[in-house]
Each structure stands twice: as structure tokens, then as C-alpha cells.
Amino acid sequence: MVTAGCGRCTAREDPFRPRGNSPSTGHLTRKTLLCICTWKTMRFYFSISKGLRKEKVQKFFCREEQALKNWLCFFAFIAILLFAVYILYCHGFVECRRMRAVLFLFRARGKKDTVSLDSCTGWVQHVGRFCESSTYVFTLDAQLSKGDAAVFLPGRNKQQLLQLNRQCPSGSIRLDGKTRYYIRWEFRDATGMCSLRW
Fold first, then answer.
1. Claim: this prediction has a pTM higher than 0.90
2. C-alpha–C-alpha distance, residues 64 and 73, integer Å
3. pLDDT tens-place string over residues 162-197
4. Left if phi > 0, otherwise alpha if psi is -120 to 50, otherwise beta: which for 82?
5. CA distances (Å), 6 to each of 12, 13, 20, 28, 192, in order?
6. If DSSP codes are grouped into helix, strand and coil, which group holds residue 130?
7. Which helix or strand (DSSP H or E) is residue 12 part of?
């Protein structure tokens, strides 16, 4: 059985026994050890949390950057597509239309337009390819079982330079090769085939 002795013996027997605040004893109290362990644990926890937060922030910005790149690529593709369609329209390879029909087939090739339609009401317009300054003769061949069709050649001020229909199927006009002209078809419940030559 251990009996009370001198201070040094007691300190060796119980190193965690409080012995005052003197730094010369070389022993730490339980409260001091607990504070040190708690502080180290908290530092370790906060360092891990900080690392995780930093990693999450980096992942978030990486995702946002990738999403922004995807949107930029999408808008660039749309802009290029619209520009290509505009170029084709200006050269007469693409038409603008608004109509209601059971069947509508339109082809513009060279100096001829061909239309096949069924119960068609509406209009279609495209750029005419007139490369030379000359007098052009237009001829409309409308083989319709019902309805009506007409062709217009509008000018810059929306004035009609030429108008063709089944009552007046041909006409001539002088055109400037450096000016852009449009050929506009209009249909009213038309069924059959039509062609325009110049």
C-alpha cells in the first residue's frame, strides 16, 4: 500500500496529480492534456473541412465553366447555321414560305420554278437568279384542277414590276443584273402543278 511521502515520490506515483502552475515540475495536468488533444482534434477537423470545401468549390466552378463553354458552342453553332441559311437564301437556294396545304413540293432550279400542290393556300418567295442585265420573258404554266395561282415580281418599294396568272400567263421586263429581285408565288386553295420559266 502506497503511503503519502515526499512531493517527488508522490509525483512519480501519480503524474496527473495537480501540482500548481510551476513549469519546473515537468508534468502536465489532465485538464492541460485534454485541452491540447481537443485543440489538435479541432485543427485536424477544420483542416479536413477546409480541404473538402475547397474541393467542392473547385468542382462547382469546373462544372460552371464547362456549362458556359457548352452554351457558347451552342450559340456559335446557331449563329453559323443562321448565317449559312441567309447566304443560301440570298443566292436563291432557300425559300421563305407561309402556307396551309395537304401537299406542297417546290423546286427552284436555274431558270425554272416547279410547284406540285394539293389544297394549298399561302405564299412562297425566293430570290431570283438574274445574273445579266437584260430583258427577261416570263411564262407561267398553271395546270390546276381547282383554285388559283399567281406569280409576282416585287420591286424595291414593294411595287409590282410584273404579275402573272392564268388570265395573263406571260410578260416581259428588263432587269438589272446587279439588283436583287424576288419571285413570289401566291396560291388560293390550289390543286395541281405549276411552272414558271424565264
1. no
2. 14
3. 999 999 999 999 998 888 888 999 999 999 999 999
4. alpha
5. 10, 11, 16, 19, 125
6. coil
7. helix 7-13
